[in-house]
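1st attempt posting a full record on here, be nice pls
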Amino acid sequence: IDQQYGYEINNISWGHTHYLKATNFILDKIPFLNQYISKNIPTDGDNETISRGTFTYSVDIDNFEHIHGSGLRTIMDLSNLKNSLFMISSGQSGNFFSPNYYDLSFLWANGHYTTLDNPAKYTLELVPN
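the predicted structure (as tokens):
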């Protein structure tokens, strides 16, 4: 640890070595595109915390990649469901070209939540024939 981060304790952060590698399973295989699609998101947690962030033990101090954890977090208020809180680990959109592709990732990683009572900017109604 001293060789990697020095002796100053303030330079050491779990997020430097423990991160979620967010990828698109198909587009991540394409050279050039993969550098724009994949994101390393610093996360907290481990196998024994509420903010679960399972990792594999490694002798490489820079590789405690977050490989398993909650993709959806909810806090339900059963007395008033409109007060319930939610967050997902990716983004609002699955479209790589959308600005909302990873827009919730850092909020998720930092323990932030939102309600579902927010009005939609756009809606799409599907009506069967």
